[in-house]
Design a protein that fits this description.
- The protein is built from five helices and seven strands; from the N terminus they run βββαααβαββαβ.
- By secondary structure, it is α+β, with helices and mostly antiparallel strands.
- Helix 1 (about 35-45) crosses helix 2 (about 55-60) and helix 2 packs across helix 3.
- The two termini are about 30 Å apart.
Length: about 180
């Protein structure tokens, strides 16, 4: 049976996965097929998330309205989020940790359970010593202890190891596009 290509969606997204990048690597499962203009818009926003649509339009050769529409489509498609990145210490969260978690059951169920906890802002299924890593942002050590009790109470969690952040040296979101 012949393959019929999915038509491009206006705004730089297509239903087809993106082709391999120049370095020969596949862009990954679930990768949105982005055109060069959408990639340029993303890179502009990674440099400065407050950059105006008019400024981005000048940089990439589109009108302000076209940039606004593309950004909206990228957000709706889950390709990107536009958020304020804060310093937890400045907001009263004096304890940040990465929790290594070992499980004896369905990793996806445990990951979903952890992701539903408000204090946990990052959950990833991993290979190596831990099955999952979860980042928690806490008000203080008492709050951390309460979160750890809840994490350890999740069905299938067999053990945890907590890595307390002493000093953040780098945090960036500007990895560009492929």
């Amino acid at each position: 049976m012949a393959h019929t290509p999915t038509p491009a969606i206006p705004g730089g997204l297509s239903g087809e996965p993106a082709p391999a990048s120049r370095n020969g690597r596949s862009p990954g499962r679930g990768s949105a097929g982005l055109d060069d203009l959408s990639k340029q818009i993303i890179e502009q926003l990674q440099e400065d998330g407050r950059r105006s649509y008019a400024s981005i339009g000048k940089a990439v050769g589109l009108s302000e309205a076209a940039v606004r529409q593309r950004v909206q489509r990228l957000v709706e498609a889950g390709v990107m989020q536009i958020v304020a990145v804060t310093d937890p210490l400045m907001l009263g969260f004096s304890r940040q940790t990465m929790i290594g978690i070992k499980c004896g059951g369905d990793l996806e169920q445990v990951a979903d359970h952890l992701a539903a906890m408000d204090e946990i802002d990052y959950v990833v299924i991993t290979s190596g010593s831990f099955d999952l890593l979860a980042e928690a942002v806490c008000e203080d050590d008492s709050h951390l202890l309460e979160i750890l009790s809840r994490v350890r109470g999740v069905p299938s969690v067999t053990s945890t190891e907590t890595f307390v952040y002493l000093k953040l040296r780098k945090q960036t979101y500007g990895w560009g596009t492929r």
